[in-house]
Amino acid sequence: MTLPIGTTAPDFEAETTEGKIKFHDWIGNSWALLFSHPKDFTPVCTTELGALAKLKPEFDKRGVKLIGLSVDPIDRHAKWAEDIKETQGAAPNYPLIGDTDFNVSKLYEMLPASTSGDPLTRTPADNQTVRNVFIIGPDKKIKLVLVYPMTTGRNFQEILRVIDSLQLTAKHRVATPADWTQGEDVIIAGSVSNDEAKTIYPQGWKEPKPYIRIVPQPK
């Protein structure tokens, strides 16, 4: 089991490639994306770290801080960054946690509480459950959890799409339909009565069924 949506993201102190952090303080009033990797110098993760480095301006625009995690130590992260830059065209431009005591992996229920020992003796398969994406809001609540197998690289365009939806629906009382992207029509949330909806949307809405009320995306 992984942490459920809506719970407070566990706080922690950790060493990263950009110095020691206290997680909640580091998030501040921003959103955060915490994504984890089973081992340094693994092929799929190498492509992911490079892809995310190139996309960082898109996350910056949305006020989302990026932070990675691997159970390997910080000095290996630095050497791995050289490979990432060489093969992917961009090195990580965000901190990477060195979770050598498995503390964060355990807190976020990616590894069993009984996990111990030298992280360098563990194989990627030993850590294959450390392949999560957590999106955390400024209120420090977990908004989304994605869990990927080692053989499937993450789709960061989908993660950006989800962040757009999360930020929109946090601000407005709407929901986003399947395959929604920025600028498309949205659905009035079920918690909004028709009387309230008439005040919020005086121009009305499309209603193919009484429970599906479609309006343009709010500004």
Automatic annotation (TrEMBL):
Keywords: Antioxidant, Oxidoreductase, Peroxidase, Redox-active center. PROSITE patterns: THIOREDOXIN_2. The active site is at 45 (cysteine sulfenic acid (-soh) intermediate). The keyword Nucleotidyltransferase does not apply. One of its GO terms (cellular component) is cytosol. GO terms for molecular function: peroxiredoxin activity. GO terms for biological process: cell redox homeostasis. Transmembrane segments: none annotated. Gene3D superfamilies: Antioxidant, Horf6, Chain A, domain2, Glutaredoxin. Residues 3-168 form the Thioredoxin domain. Belongs to the peroxiredoxin family. AhpC/Prx1 subfamily. Belongs to the peroxiredoxin family. Prx6 subfamily. This is 1-Cys peroxiredoxin. The lineage of its organism: Bacteria, Pseudomonadati, Pseudomonadota, Alphaproteobacteria, Hyphomicrobiales.
